[in-house]
Amino acid sequence: MGNNLWKFATAATALGVAGFLLVDAPSAEAASNVIRNGGFEDGSSGWTSAWSSIGAAPYHSAINNTLPFRPHIGAWKAELGGDGLGGEGFNGQQSVSQTVTLEPKTRYIFSYWLYVTPRTAGFRELEVTASAGGHTYRLDYRTNKDVNSGYQKVNIQLPQDLVFTTEQRVRFSFTAVEDAVNGSPFLLDDVSLSPVANSR
Asked: Mind giving me the DSSP string for 121-170?
């Protein structure tokens, strides 16, 4: 297992432990995107949305085309969290995920555009994971302290532990956790998973 990877049991996703981010990864064949509807322009098609709460339910759908938050490109995006202060007092987690098939003996680049909106009161965190073979691998981790000025592209080269000898089903998930007073979401758009050229 590489230095840039945390490995967890699927039954116990370890929120709160710092993850590792890989940037400036090798070029990938962008035309071979494995993710379906990565730009969310077909709404929730291809994606599974879920939420769990201690207080009220979130007032917005995870995948939406509503204001005030705008997408990176197009009309739709994923909006995770932000339903505390000024919303419905939501206290829990909200996620989107998709399961895809990875080809054998192939390395992939996982990328997406992420906007950590301006910090408000309360706490929030975002965990990006890949689950396969009974294990969950943390790919990225952010909190409300990681505010940026707008959408920024994240590139992650999947580690050797996610290169398989046969076809493998892998579930990629984005999960936001917040307390009841957080009022600012994580915005996600243009998700891509592409094979690295000549990686076989």
From this structure: SS-EEEEEEEEETTEEEEEEEEETT---SS-EEEEEEPPGGG--SS-EEE
